Amino acid sequence: MLFCLADLLSPQVVAAADNAQNHIDPYDRALRNWQSKAPLNTKIMKGRSAAFGDRPWQVGLLTASIPDPLYAHFCSGTLITDQWVITVAHCVAGRQGTELIVLVGTNSLNLGGRKKQVISVVVHGAYDPRTRENDLALLFLDSPTAIFPPQFPSIEVEQRLVDDQEKIKVGGWGNTYDFGVKSLDLMETEAPLVPLQLCSEPDSHGQSLTATMLCAGYEDGRTDACDGDSGGPATVRQYGQEFLIGVKSWGDCGAPKKYGVFTRITPYVGWIRANTHSGLIRTQTEYLWPESLVAPARRFP
């Protein structure tokens, strides 16, 4: 089996497999770009404009203190209930809810939609910023949003999708902080899922990969799954349903065999449900230990 625990690879520091800029806090990078008024390339390569309403559950994460949405946007997320957003930990670890704005209900950063306040930030307790293991976080919004979120696949469905190398759809407003591109409009692209054995070969990402990650992309580095924003959803439409199979974590876009890497959803369903169905309103950033999956690594920060 692809994700058998016996095949779990030892986490190692993401280095050659990762763009060096991936280790820079996206939130801090947004602030520095705004303060310096660094020019942003507004052309997205290898993508197409998402049709209005095609990805209604995808949201943009904005820096609350930056008025220009092009500069304020730094990551993406996905509505998984009417009031909870899932994203990656490296986008929001150490941030208070008051530092964040979530833009919902629009394909454009500067037209339409609604800006939601963030009441609570919940980061996976075993998140390791060096290896990107357990790169997952939840945001609780100040008010509900009318949305039909994507479904979580079962392990069996996920396995079938990977085995068949089904194409996932990824979207974003541009991976500015990794690759210097940006768009005011939501862009999307497709790329096939890649078996973990192939993605963890020495000339690919090697031992940086663990069994809680999955890969997508093309061997020659063309249209790449890591063209979307960090934290953005990787989805597959099967059986008449939209499945959220992963959230974009890291990668080395454009290089041969350097596939986009996503945090899998299926191992964390118990953790997600435990935190989103608890009925608690958390008012500050908390680092919670996992209640399912694997033994915790270490607390961060």
Description:
This protein is an alpha+beta fold. The protein folds into two domains: 5-20 and 151-266, Thrombin, subunit H (Beta Barrel); 22-41 and 56-147 and 268-288, Trypsin-like serine proteases (Thrombin, subunit H), CATH 2.40.10.10. Helix content is 15%, strand content 27%. The strands form two sheets. Strands 8-9-10-13-12-11 form a six-stranded antiparallel β-barrel. The two termini are 34 Å apart. Residues 1-22, 278-285 and 289-301 have low confidence and may be disordered.
CATH topology value of the largest domain = Thrombin, subunit H
Largest sheet: 6 strands, antiparallel, barrel
What low-confidence regions span 5 or more consecutive residues with pLDDT below 50?
1-22, 278-285, 289-301
Give the overall pLDDT as a whole number.
Answer: 76
CATH homologous superfamily designation of the largest domain: Trypsin-like serine proteases
Shape descriptor: globular
Provide the CATH top-level class of the largest domain.
Answer: Mainly Beta
Structural class: alpha+beta
N-C termini distance: 34 Å
Give the helix tally.
7
What's the structural domain tally? 2
CATH architecture of the largest domain: Beta Barrel
* Portion in beta strands: 25-35%
